[in-house]
């Protein structure tokens, strides 16, 4: 028997028959394993269940990768991938911080592409409501399964030649929680693997709990190669012309081609947790929503609140808020997605299916979001932010956070200074950072049964007309409120200009099925419990005639949360108005805050609201038509009448 005298990650060192010997640990190098004749260069094939293996084999035949890498989720794997990405020029280290990296994308690949995102069902009406004749539907895009198959074959055949196919087993939600779901993502992007490792729980922890009966969502992703074969920007391959993001709810399948960015490529996020998630939620009787989850403690009493705001409208900021009022504490459960269901006692419970924050960088500063600033300067991948000559990052909003003498390189790699006409960071530049690093992460953020939700907020960017806060009169009104949500367009998707867009439930880009059916599903929640959460609509973004925000926002938003808590305690602090309940005079705590024009902030203008309700009604009629639940039509008519008497 050899006597082992030492070992490290790669070798064991032994004395055998009086001689020194060194043995490579073969278990670390399973190059002798193959799948469909392709070498597995990392990871253990045997951890894959039969069903997973069959899925991977099928996609190997299609994509024809050179090698297979089965992700184990270890630190060692991660540092190897980061090295590789550095060699490829995809990321550069940020020596000012600990284990932080900057990725610059191809400038043509910087945001989600809604126009190229489709849900594939046999019947079109399962995916989108039938718009009025002559009207273009804007509540999602539909494709038939046959068409989907054709498009997939055209793009994916041989798309991973000369590339590695990474197999990422991942869990949305704490591993093993009854509310969690498992996915398998196949991708040819190491950047995606490194990001998925932050945003979800990946690797062996997940394969360990899988057996042959375990269901999983199938997620296929390739950054693609343009038809002419020319990869313009080898450090960020992509194929913007042919980008396509497809979802097949019937088989729990996602197929994404052509983009390496965010919601297009980190398939656990919008594709799985929202689009496929909402279809599973519909079948199983729960809710998959574009919502942050926060805990707020006042006088020792803690409540949890979920809030749906459209992309780049303040979820991350609210979820990590530092209250300005003394005696309040906010803790963060999640900043983007909530999976919620009523438990056997009729209590709504929520989990954050994610494991990290993929947050908007511009605007994040010690003044606006100090908690995020304490979270993101270790183990973080920044994408499309600007870089400083001392090895740090920079973006709009960080003016007071950098030394005056540093030089700045913009997100495109060009020298930048304060007089430059273009922004230093792309407006949709992001940080991708582990949630557990957040100093105010909630102690229950990984609780398998979820946290109890007492209130739901909707909100958006409304420069005119919409008050700081109003409360829904009842559940039907609440569902109507969510359905009527509108907001100014932002840089998170490819829309141009500052138009006010309808964004029902902040979910318009993320519905996995017909919005009319979604509304009915929400209405049906009334039958599941006698303990419905109270629902509110907030607007931090109303502007005065000088074009400036009327409300300071950020940490001061705790004053609005405070009013919500009073309402949850059934305090008589609300006045009825046609659009809902608003704070009674002096019931919103403004102590220590000067210069707030409360009358402008809460002014209800009859002309504005008449236009608003007309726009909402037109939208429902044109876009949802016969799929609109009668209860919502009635709410709409009721509100219209009340506004007439305003
Ligand atoms: P997604 O990750 O795209 O879903 O966005 P999000 O909803 O998490 O938005 P986020 O919190 O990242 O905020 C986006 C932008 O809105 C940032 O530039 C913030 O500075 C700004 N913002 C957030 N909260 C407030 C607020 O209370 N008032 C004002 N004026 N701006 C805010
Ligand atoms: C959003 O756009 O709502 C995001 C960013 O959270 S992405 O993941 O790209 O969808
Ligand atoms: Mn989002």
Detailed description of the structure:
GO terms for molecular function: GTP binding; manganese ion binding; phosphoenolpyruvate carboxykinase (GTP) activity. Belongs to the phosphoenolpyruvate carboxykinase [GTP] family. Residues 286-641 form the Phosphoenolpyruvate carboxykinase C-terminal P-loop domain. The protein has 646 residues and is an alpha+beta fold. It is built from 16 helices and 36 strands. The strands form seven sheets. Strands 4, 5, 6, 9, 10, 11, 12, 13, 14, 15 and 16 form an eleven-stranded mixed beta sheet that branches. Strands 17, 18, 19, 20, 21, 22, 30, 31 and 34 form a nine-stranded mixed beta sheet that branches. Strand 4 (34-35) and strand 5 (38-42) form a beta hairpin. It is globular and about 95 Å long. The model has no long low-confidence stretch (mean pLDDT 96). The structure holds guanosine-5'-triphosphate, sulfopyruvate and manganese (II) ion. The site of sulfopyruvate has 9 residues, from helix 7 and helix 8. Sulfopyruvate binds at residues 112, 262-263, 269-270, 311, 336, 358, 492.
């Amino acid at each position: 028997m050899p006597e082992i005298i030492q070992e490290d990650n790669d070798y064991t060192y032994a004395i055998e028959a009086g001689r020194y010997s060194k043995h490579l640990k073969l278990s670390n190098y399973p190059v002798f394993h193959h799948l469909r004749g392709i070498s597995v260069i990392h990871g253990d094939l045997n951890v894959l269940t039969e069903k997973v293996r069959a899925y991977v084999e099928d996609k190997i035949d299609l994509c024809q990768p050179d090698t297979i890498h089965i992700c184990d989720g270890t630190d060692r794997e991660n540092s190897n991938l980061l090295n590789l990405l550095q060699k490829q020029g995809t990321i550069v280290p940020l020596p000012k911080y600990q284990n932080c990296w900057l990725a610059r994308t191809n400038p043509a690949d910087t945001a989600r592409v809604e126009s190229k995102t489709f849900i594939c069902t046999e019947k079109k009406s399962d995916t989108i409501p039938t718009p009025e004749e002559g009207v273009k539907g804007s509540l999602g895009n539909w494709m038939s399964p046959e068409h989907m198959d054709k498009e997939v074959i055209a793009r994916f055949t041989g798309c991973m030649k000369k590339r590695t196919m990474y197999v990422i087993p991942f869990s949305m939600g704490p591993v093993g929680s009854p509310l969690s779901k498992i996915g398998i993502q196949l991708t040819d992007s190491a950047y995606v693997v490194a990001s998925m490792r932050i945003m979800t729980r990946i690797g062996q922890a997940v394969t360990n709990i899988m057996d042959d009966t375990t269901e999983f969502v199938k997620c296929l992703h390739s950054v693609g190669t343009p038809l002419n074969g020319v990869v313009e920007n080898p450090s960020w391959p992509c194929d913007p012309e042919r980008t396509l993001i497809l979802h097949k709810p019937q088989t729990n399948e996602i197929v994404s081609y052509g983009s390496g960015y965010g919601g297009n490529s980190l398939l656990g996020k919008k594709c799985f947790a929202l689009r496929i998630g909402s279809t599973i939620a519909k079948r199983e009787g729960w809710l998959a929503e574009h919502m942050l989850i926060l805990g707020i403690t006042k006088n020792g009493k803690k409540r949890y609140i979920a809030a749906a705001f459209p992309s780049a409208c303040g979820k991350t900021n609210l979820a990590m808020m530092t209250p300005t009022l003394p005696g309040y504490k906010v803790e963060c459960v999640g900043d983007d997605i909530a999976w919620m269901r009523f438990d056997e006692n009729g209590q709504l419970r929520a989990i954050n299916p994610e494991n990290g924050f993929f947050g908007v960088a511009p605007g994040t500063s010690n003044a606006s979001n100090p908690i995020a600033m304490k979270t993101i300067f270790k183990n973080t991948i920044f994408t499309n932010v600007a870089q400083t000559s001392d090895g740090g990052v920079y973006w709009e909003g960080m003016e007071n956070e950098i030394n005056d003498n540093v030089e700045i390189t913009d997100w495109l790699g060009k020298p930048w200074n304060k007089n430059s006409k273009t922004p230093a960071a792309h407006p949709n530049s992001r940080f991708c950072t582990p949630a557990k690093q957040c100093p105010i992460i909630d102690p229950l953020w990984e609780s398998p049964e979820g946290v109890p939700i007492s209130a739901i907020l909707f909100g958006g960017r409304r420069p005119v007309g919409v008050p700081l806060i109003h409360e829904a009169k009842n559940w039907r009104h609440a569902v109507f409120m969510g359905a009527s949500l509108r907001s100014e367009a932002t840089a998170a998707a490819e829309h141009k200009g500052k138009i006010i867009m309808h964004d029902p439930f902040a979910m318009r880009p993320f519905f996995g099925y017909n919005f009319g059916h979604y509304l009915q599903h929400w209405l049906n929640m009334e039958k599941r419990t006698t303990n419905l959460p109270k629902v509110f609509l907030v607007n931090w973004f109303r502007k005065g005639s000088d074009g400036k925000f009327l409300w300071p926002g950020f940490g001061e938003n705790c004053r609005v949360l405070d009013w919500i808590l009073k309402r949850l305690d059934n305090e008589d602090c609300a006045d009825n108005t046609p659009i809902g309940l608003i704070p009674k005079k002096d019931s919103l705590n403004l102590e220590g805050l000067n210069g707030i024009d409360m009358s402008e902030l809460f002014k209800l203008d009859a002309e504005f609201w008449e236009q608003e309700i007309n726009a909402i009604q037109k939208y429902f009629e044109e876009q949802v038509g016969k799929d609109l639940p009668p209860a919502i039509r009635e709410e709409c008519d009721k509100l219209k009448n009340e506004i007439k008497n305003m």
